[in-house]
Amino acid sequence: MAGGKTDWFENLMLDYYIGKANASTAPTTLYLSLWNSTLNDGLNSATTGECAGANYNRVAITNSSGFWTNAASGSKQNKTVIVFTTNASTGWGTIKAAALGDSTAGGNYYYWGDIAPQTISPGNTVQFSTGTIIISED
Q1: Which of 47, 31, 58, 50 is nearest to 92 (CA)?
Q2: How confident is the model at residue 133 (pLDDT cuts 50, 70, 90)?
Q3: pLDDT, position 58
Q4: Listed residue (68, 63, 81, 40) closest to 136, CA to CA
Q5: 125-130: long-range contacts (C-beta < 8 A, 24 or more apart)?
Q6: What is the pLDDT confidence band of residue 10, given thresholds at 50, 70 and 90?
Q7: From CA 128, how far away is CA 131, in angstroms rounded?
Q8: Measuring CA to CA, how many Å separate 128 from each of 7, 77, 82?
Q9: N- or C-end of the chain: fewer Cβ atoms within 10 A?
Q10: Domain, as residue range, for 121
């Protein structure tokens, strides 16, 4: 499955580490979003294709070592289960991707990844178990 760093984040990192053009700081909270559309590195502040419906909200993640493992072999993983719960009367369609960003809506996206497509019916939950969100650098 495909996944990667967004173009925006690649440029931010280049500007920060090469030439120090941007004194960015890491956000204290990240937000995981679910998508009905496929994503790519060009993902920007748009929300077209993001899940919508009753009770859908991005899940807030405290950006700390309490949530993420220490980097090893070029990757980090979640140490905590993440759960999205639908409304009892409204589903979210078929989800195909997830993205990690810095806002409850729109905002900047850091990483994205395809997930096995699954139809989310009313009352279903979407769960990411410990160690299933893997962010890698090559």
Answers
A1: 50
A2: very high
A3: 96
A4: 68
A5: 125/83, 125/84, 125/85, 125/86, 126/34, 126/83, 126/84, 126/95, 127/81, 127/82, 127/83, 127/84, 128/32, 128/78, 128/81, 128/82, 128/83, 128/98, 129/81, 130/77, 130/78, 130/79, 130/80, 130/81
A6: confident
A7: 8
A8: 25, 11, 5
A9: C
A10: 3-136
Domain count for the chain: 1
Q: What are phi and psi of 118, to 5 degrees?
A: -145, 140
Q: How far lies 3's CA from each of 40, 54, 88, in Å?
A: 7, 27, 31
Give tens-digit pLDDT for 21-35. Answer: 666 788 899 999 999
Residues 6 or more apart from 21 whose CB is under 8 A from it?
A: 15
